[in-house]
Amino acid sequence: MFALQEIPGGNIAVHHTPFYHLGMEMVRIAYVLTEEIKGSALFLSGEFRKHQLHRIIQEMNSNVYLITNKFAEVHEDAAYDQLMEAATLIRRAAREIDVLCNELIMLDKVHSRRCAQMLEAVEKLKPHFKDWIQTFKGCRFQNDEWGLFVPNPISE
Predict the structure, then answer these.
(1) If the chain, 156 residues long, is cut into consecutive pieces of 10 residues, what is the mean pLDDT of each piece?
(2) What's the number of domains the chain is made of?
(3) Which domain holds residue 33?
């Protein structure tokens, strides 16, 4: 089950959660993958392909950092809509990582092992994400004038 640990001063130690550790593992994999791609013959083989690979690694790095940062920035007294917004962005980033890994594998089979590691990390993140979402029940709710993140919508 998902549980945040109290640390002295009343702050929540998100850095001690499996979710955060998996996010940091994804950051590490993205870093290694970036370095491998920049050193690969394919990266040096042509301007168009170099542009494609550069875009993929830039977007992948952006998404792995977003996952970890969004999780770390919401705290125990965050409102329901803030939590849902962070969760939505995390889910979108994880889905984008999946697409980027598959695109990279299609361009260059050499990096398929690292991409498999990244996809495995995303899969491991899912149950922790689901546990985290379950903690949103009973969170402080603010009236969302857009009506986007309403815990129990009332039909009129």
Answers:
(1) 40 72 92 85 70 89 94 80 91 96 83 90 94 80 71 56
(2) 1
(3) 14-134
Q: Using alpha carbons, list the distances in angstroms from residue 79 to 11, 25, 143.
A: 16, 28, 10
Write the single-letter amino acid at 47: E
pLDDT on residue 9: 41
Q: Could you write out the DSSP letters of every residue in 15-78?
A: GGSHHHHHHHHHHHHHHHHHHHHHTSTTTTS-HHHHHHHHHHHHHHHHHHHHHHHHHHH--TT-
Does 100 fall in a domain?
yes
Residue 3 lies in a domain: no
Dist. CA 31–CA 48, nearest whole Å:
22
Residue 121 falls within a domain, yes or no?
Answer: yes
Q: What pLDDT is stored for residue 90 in this prediction? A: 96
